[in-house]
Amino acid sequence: MAKNPLEQYFNGEFPEQYQEPPGLQKEMSPLPDCGETSYKGSGKLTGKKALVTGGDSGIGRAAAIAYAREGADVAINYLPVEQPDAEEVKELIEKEGRKAVLIPGDLRSEEFCQEMVEEANSELGGLDILALVAGKQQAVEDIMDLSTEQIKATFETNVFSLYWTVKAAMPHLSAGASIITTTSVEAFNPSPMLLDYAATKGTIMNFTKAFAKQAASKGIRVNSVAPGPIWTPLQISGGQPTANIPNFGQGTPPTPLQRAGQPVELSDVYVFLASDSASYVTGQIYSVTGGMPTA
Ligand code: NAD
Ligand code: MG
Known about the structure:
Layout: E1 49-53, H1 58-69, E2 73-78, H2 83-95, E3 100-104, H3 110-124, E4 129-132, H4 148-169, E5 178-182, H5 195-215, E6 221-227, H6 233-239, H7 264-274, E7 285-288
Parallel strand pairs: 1-2, 1-4, 2-3, 4-5, 5-6, 6-7
Helix pairs in contact: 1-2, 1-7, 3-4, 4-5
Bound molecules: nicotinamide-adenine-dinucleotide (NAD) and magnesium ion (MG).
């Protein structure tokens, strides 16, 4: 029987909550659904090797779990303080009989981005999938309160790390490899309180389209996923003003599907773009936004 998308996942009021960024998924209420109990694989990525940044929690965790269930070995990157979330993901990957590699570290360092790629490549014995999901979002209502420090940190995390990681990975990628970046509905319809973040997401979209053209002749596909409001640690650790948390996904502007999304609702798109089924797909933006327009 068909399920009603309005009611398929949590659609009530979220309890107001705040954690220091980057936040721990373990401590959220309700817990985000990253497919831990529900995602079922069917061999779509058998034998592939994936590196997922931000793989400890939220959308990156959903991608990491799905990749393992589809038969891939998976390395995940995250910040050292997120070790407790990362350990849970490691356990879930290993439960599938796949190899899990934990690579904590700060993507704002070019040197670390290079080390991360080298470690993933050597530990996994190659690289086929680069899912770049890590991101920083801090809402600031007035530009006068937006510090240079924050602007730099947001661009370093969301944009610079992309160039550094992709540059480090290219020598290891061969025809058939897939790079997936993570933009946002914010690239299309930016919020007034996300002046730095929304600009990075516009940049990521543009980078993706341009780099897809450059990488195509090598047989490497490059696409991006544009999520709408998704229930993750990013949002309860300053991504939204805390007062907006109870109605997250239902507030202003309203989401046509009237609720926040769960990370697992992104899993299939990250899997498709990584898989050989997406053989004729590059330079594209796939939106999962609860109906918020992205054109
Ligand atoms: P999340 O908090 O679960 O994931 C973000 C991850 O980024 C963190 O787990 C952390 O490991 C990583 N990160 C942040 N700064 C880092 C740094 N300096 N070095 C290394 N890693 C760092 O939240 P999420 O919502 O799943 O975010 C994943 C991606 O989805 C982000 O790019 C975000 O911009 C994007 N996105 C999220 C939403 C949403 O509503 N949640 C909407 C659109 C786009
Ligand atoms: Mg996290």
